[in-house]
Amino acid sequence: MWVFGMASVGGLAAGFATLAASMDGLTIKSPLAGAFKFEPHEVVSLEVKGSKLSGRGLHVRHTRIDYPKTVAFFPMFRRMGTLVTQINETGFVPAGNESNVPLREGLPVKWQAIAVSTVLWNLLLFLQWRLDGLQPGLFSILALALVSAGSLAALRSRSLQDLMLKEGRSIGEIRPILRFFVLLSVAMIWLLSDFFR
């Protein structure tokens, strides 16, 4: 079974997505956020949440520590009741145990990592302001490059992840946010480079 719709991952809209279900697993794929694959023993329940006004979505209550706490799918061109029925017909049955759902309080990132990032960002923008006022320039591009490079490094470097994440937390919890930062900062660098031509 395959369905087209929208996804929300970690509380952020992840754009267009697909949901595929079979007896062996459930997968939600989004070009922006990536793929989230669940086996039956990793899913505690599939919950329909939301209202007709805000949109009803299928929320996956899961036991995976390497995924954000909230992973939801909002089908297009299909009623929620129909979607749930079709998933049940594939033979996918959530078999996860409620006691295995990770307790996650607050952000997975240490406050020191957030503070250092904020100080560096503001320092570069302050230098740009002192140099050219409100005009974009070298330091504003450098600030955006720092966001992009820092996000990519956090996604790839285990050492950096150990420095920035709280004990027992996973980079998978913030992977969609970091990917969004990379995409946004690269797009803004491209737009600003056009400004200098």
Protein architecture, described:
This protein is of the alpha+beta class. The chain folds into 2 domains: 2-100, Pleckstrin-homology domain (PH domain)/Phosphotyrosine-binding domain (PTB) (PH-domain like), CATH 2.30.29.30; 111-195. It has 5 helices and 7 strands. The chain has helices at 80-90, 111-132, 138-156, 158-164, 175-195, and strands at residues 2-9, 12-22, 25-30, 34-38, 43-49, 57-62, 71-75. It has a 7-stranded antiparallel sheet, with helices on one face. Strand 5 (43-49) and strand 6 form a beta hairpin. Helix 3 (138-156) runs antiparallel to helix 5. The N and C termini lie far apart (49 Å).
Which features characterize this protein?
single chain, 197 residues, alpha+beta, PH-domain like, 2 domains, seven-stranded antiparallel β-sheet, 7 strands
Task: Describe the structure in brief.
The chain is of the alpha+beta class and 197 residues long. Helix content is 41%, strand content 24%. The protein folds into two domains: 2-100, Pleckstrin-homology domain (PH domain)/Phosphotyrosine-binding domain (PTB) (PH-domain like, Roll), CATH 2.30.29; 111-195.
